[in-house]
Automatic annotation (TrEMBL), chain A:
Endpoints of the signal sequence: none
Domain ABC transmembrane type-2: 23-253
Domain of life: Bacteria
PROSITE patterns: ABC_TM2
Membrane topology summary: Multi-pass membrane protein
Compartments (UniProt record): Cell inner membrane; Membrane
InterPro entries according to UniProt: ABC-2_transport_permease, ABC2_TM, ABC2_TM_bact-type, ABC_2_transport
Protein name: Transport permease protein
Keyword set, alphabetical order: Cell membrane, Membrane, Transmembrane, Transmembrane helix, Transport
Family affiliation: Belongs to the ABC-2 integral membrane protein family.
Chain ranges passing through the membrane: 21-43, 63-86, 106-133, 139-165, 172-193, 228-250
TrEMBL record, chain B:
Entry protein name: ABC transporter ATP-binding protein
ABC transporter domain mapped to chain residues: 7-238
Protein species of origin: Dokdonella soli
Pfam families hit by this protein: ABC_tran
Record-linked SMART domains: AAA
SUPFAM superfamilies in UniProt: P-loop containing nucleoside triphosphate hydrolases
Ligase listed as a keyword: no
Single GO term (MF): ATP binding
Keywords: ATP-binding, Nucleotide-binding, Transport
Length: 258, 310
């Protein structure tokens, strides 16, 4: 297909994904709004007021805002693509795309764009909620925006790989429950890893989510536990590797074609 | 001058991961504009063959070319030429038929304005327009089958493959589907049809291939195939009970019940002598019909012969 045809195909998948997200907004947008409101009330207001300043004179509630936004981006971009693509596999309507002239990369890009848009939409909702509890100063807008985009892309791609391998609905719930949630909680969302002793501080640096949370925190608050260059290198590396895996799976039809 | 076949399948093989050899070197050719029947018993390899043609199944060996374009090496270009109506329902039940059709066109790179026009055209032609904006799950079985035909037509393919499109559909809807597909074929689209309704294949198709256990056992014109049928069986409904059957030269008579008999005879034998003999014996025939569809008889014989040979 030529460039224009590929663009139409890409827009078709993305549009379908966005319509799906908005149609089932109570499942896709509302849960994060409620969960994050609870985090702000309990950890930010109730617990945070007793903790006070945590790093460089930053109040605890301000400190956790970037982490909570990233947590929402991670779970929503991952959850969107894994449930949507696996649903298409399960309902067999993935065949509409597999039997079409669309190249693999357009299918992947369309689904990833849809999942990223959900991640960004939820990030905007959580950011809006946080404004009821604190004031946000955007220190580095481009770092903030590029971090949220890269994080959404990384977890959309990871969710896609999960959906391709999944054979039943349980398989798409395992990774978020047993991998993503622990890594997110241990990724410096609620604390600075510099406060940890050896070896936990060093072990925390093996967690990729730490780099995403801290790059985003740098963008919003101007503080970070990790060098910004390393954080972007980690995010870009994951994005490239996962995109290559996703394309390979689609090209070879692994888990999709008999 | 030679024309490029609409479909040229050469030594196509497929062995699944569990070791099942679904296709054992299938070769066949379908000419442009043909209405081609691909028949075979369950598990013969029809759906695997169609799966390979639509790139949903990876072939183990051989190749298939659609209007000269290889399905294996030029997948994208080949898929632009094919429209597929699969055996199983495979659209999103939560979407609306109009959106399903427009999205399908989008996957082929067709601009949205054109897609909307085509969706309206084909949904109207297939009498689905009044359901176009309701969730597809609310439609009846026959409507869902017609929706898959409308969806396949969105790219206006040169080769339309229909895998049992009328399965489980009532006769009225089936006939309306035949009319639509015949119209598509008359307009120049090559059609490949698999069906278990052999009457359907006999009425619609000009050429035929029969596949059994992964091999093509017959590939000829419908006319030639039917001419091979040397014996026909008629069912005769009698006016009064007849206990003793008369002897009629060249005709094998047998009882179904007291007032029904079967007459098996060669195609060369004329019916006049049968009726004359029955009449002299005081047997009055009220009505007569073919015991089975002609193609059905041939199909059963070919498949049975294949089993014996195997």
């Amino acid at each position: 297909m030529n460039t224009n045809a590929n663009l139409i195909a890409f827009k078709t998948i993305t549009r379908r994904e966005v319509i799906r997200i908005l149609r089932i907004w109570m499942q896709t947008l509302l849960p994060s709004a409620i969960t994050m409101t609870l985090y702000f009330v309990i950890f930010g207001r109730m617990v945070g007021s007793r903790i006070g300043a945590i790093a460089d004179g930053i109040q605890y509630i301000d400190y956790i805002v970037p982490g909570l936004i990233m947590m929402a981006v991670i779970t929503n971009s991952y959850g969107n693509i894994s449930s949507s693509f696996f649903g298409a596999k399960f309902g067999r309507h993935v065949e509409e795309m597999l039997a079409s002239p669309m190249p693999s990369w357009v299918i992947l890009a369309g689904y990833v764009a849809g999942a990223m848009l959900r991640g960004l939409l939820v990030a905007a909702i959580v950011l809006a909620i946080s404004l009821f509890f604190t004031r946000i100063h955007l220190y580095h807008p481009w770092v903030t925006f590029s971090t949220v985009l890269l994080t959404a892309a990384v977890f959309s791609l990871a969710g896609f790989v999960n959906a391709v391998y999944a054979k039943k609905f349980d398989d798409i719930a395992l990774v978020p429950t047993f991998v993503l949630t622990p890594l997110t909680y241990l990724g410096g969302v609620f604390y600075s890893v510099n406060q940890l002793g050896t070896p936990w501080r060093e072990i925390s640096h093996a967690n990729p989510i730490l780099y995403m949370v801290n790059a985003f925190r740098w963008g919003l608050l101007g503080v970070s536990d990790v060098p910004l260059g390393v954080a972007f290198a980690v995010m870009l590396s994951f994005a490239v590797v996962l995109a290559a895996i996703g394309l390979h799976l689609l090209d070879r039809g692994i888990g999709l074609r008999s | 001058m030679t024309t490029t076949p609409a479909l040229d399948v050469v030594e196509l093989k497929k062995t699944y991961a569990n070791g099942v050899e679904a296709l054992k070197g299938v070769s066949l050719s379908v000419q442009p504009g043909d209405f081609f029947a691909l028949l075979g018993p369950n598990g013969a390899g029809k759906s695997t063959l169609i799966g390979i043609l639509s790139s949903l199944v990876n072939a183990t060996g051989g190749d298939a070319r659609v209007f000269g374009v290889s399905v294996r090496t030029q997948r994208s270009a080949a898929m632009r030429l094919i429209g597929l109506v699969p055996q199983e329902l495979n659209f999103n039940m939560f979407e609306k038929p109009f959106d399903i059709c427009v999205n399908q066109a989008g996957f082929y790179g067709i601009p949205r304005a054109v897609a909307c026009e085509r969706a309206e055209k084909y949904l109207k032609q297939l009498v689905l327009w009044d359901k176009a904006f309701e969730p597809a799950r609310a439609m009846s079985g026959g409507m869902k089958r017609r929706l898959m035909i409308a969806r396949a037509m969105m790219s206006e393919p040169k080769l339309l493959i229909l895998d049992e499109p009328t399965a489980g559909v009532d006769i009225e809807i089936r006939r309306s589907m035949w009319k639509f597909i015949s119209g598509i074929n008359a307009a120049g689209t090559t059609v490949i049809l698999t069906t278990h309704y052999l009457e359907e294949a006999e009425q619609l198709c000009r050429n035929i291939a029969i596949i059994d256990r992964g091999r093509i056992i017959e590939n000829t014109s419908m006319k030639q195939l039917l001419s091979k049928l040397d014996v026909e069986t008629f069912v005769l409904d009698l006016a009064q009970p007849c206990t003793a059957l008369p002897d009629v030269s060249g005709v094998k008579l047998s009882h179904v019940d007291d007032v029904t008999i079967e007459a098996e005879m060669s195609r060369e034998h004329d019916l006049n002598s049968l009726f004359a003999t029955l009449s002299t014996r005081g047997v009055t025939v009220r009505s007569m019909r073919n015991k089975a569809n002609r193609l059905e008889e041939l199909f059963v014989r070919l498949v049975e012969n294949g089993k014996v040979a195997a």
